[in-house]
Amino acid sequence: MAQIVKLRRSAVTGQKPTNSNLQLGELAMNTTDGKVFLAKSGSDGPSIEELISTNTVNTGSINLIGSITASYFNGDGSGLTNIVSSSYAVTSSYAGLAFTIESVPGSTQLLEVTTPSTTWYFNHNLGETYPVIQVYDSNGFVVIPSSIEMFSENTAVITFSMAQSGFATATVGGGLPAISSSYDGRILQTDGVGASWNTITDMGFATTGSNSFNGNQTITGSLNVTSDTVITGSLTVNGTMVMTDRPAFRVTGAGGPMGAVTTLSGSYLNVDYQQGSGWNNTNGTFTAPITGLYQVNVVVRTNSNSLGTISQLIVYKNNTGGTTGTPQVMIEFGANTTMNHTGGSTICKLNAGDTLKMVVAVGAISFDANDNFSVAYLG
User: Of 43, 144, 172, 176, which has the fewest Cβ atoms less than 10 A away?
Assistant: First the structure.
């Protein structure tokens, strides 16, 4: 009767023999895990090693001299090194594949295979199970492979009857991104390489804040400007242009004589209206909020027709006290004048931060309810 030889064994999950359990060259197995163990010697002393078997998770390192043939590689490849030469651009996503993948913006991916192979693994990562696959040889001619398997929504397997090098492309949607309600308020931008959806601010033109436009701009409809806009070139607006808080104000007099040197302010004035916040009635100063041209108007009344000297009221630009600054409007009554109310106006250019003040410079002036001082931004 034939004799049955049984190896040392264990049915306990995860149990592994030790050096004290086995003699050198002796085998043992775990019948539950499906693993086989060998006691071996080496420069570091005896050890227990696992033999490779199918459908089993083995622990340890494998050093192979030769090639490995498999249907596909499963895993992220983050721990693989020295797979291909440095001339290939290999990342953890493509480790183990002897070719490079070039990403093209949009919905197209390019695969380049430099080493002839009967099987190409195309990790296009388009997230689409059925992209359009086109295959070319190294000379740019279209090649019909033996089969194209859509292995997953990110991977296609292309097979040939004989080893082939060349290129393959995977395309979804013609290269333009899809449109949905989430793209509301965006604009499609192309740059010669790809296309992308951007908000108006991403395009360099803000819906609020400051904008700089170079060249000619044509706007059909209404343009609502709530902040500074610098335009280099011409701007044509077919419709209305609304500027909120366009700088302007008007004050009238409260009556009574004012002698030199007096800045008209406070109790001497009543504010008729103000648009914006440029006028300070407390100190009688208008401060230009933006650079541009301003219309300046003044109407005043002589204090006395029997005053023996002249009287002057001057609107100064950037007055810092007394009669300093640059005169913009001057109204002068002669001695013993027969004139009562009179006025003057001008257009002056102000930079942002420049000021205007109305000052009685010589003699005496009256500023009553029939008199006024106003400034309006022209542009």
Answer: 43
**Count of the separate structural domains present in the chain:** 4
Yes or no: say if 118 and 159 are a contact pair by the CB < 8 Å rule: yes
Query: Do residues 368 and 269 make contact, with C-beta atoms less than 8 angstroms apart?
Result: no
Coil, helix or strand at residue 202 = helix
Report cis status (omega within 30 of 0) of the bond before 261: yes
Of the listed ranges 105-119, 143-157, 347-361, the one predicted with least confidence: 105-119
CA 67 and chain centroid, separation: 49
pLDDT digits (tens, 9 = 90+) for 235-282: 777 776 666 668 999 999 987 788 899 999 999 999 999 999 999 999
* Domain carrying residue 274: 248-377
Tally Cβ neighbours within 10 Å of residue 152: 11
Residues with Cβ within 8 Å of 195's Cβ and at least 6 positions away in sequence, in order, are 105, 106, 175, 176, 177, 188, 189
Whether 237 maps to a domain, the answer reads yes
CA dihedral sign of residues 35, 38, 42, 46? positive
- Residues 6+ positions from 350 with CB-CB distance below 8 Å: 288, 291, 292, 293, 294, 317, 356
Q: Which residue has the tokens 């086995």?
A: 22
* Tokens describing residue 194: 């790809």
Three-class secondary structure of residue 203 per DSSP:
helix
Strand bridging mode 257-259 / 364-366: antiparallel
Q: Are 255 and 373 contained in the same domain?
A: yes
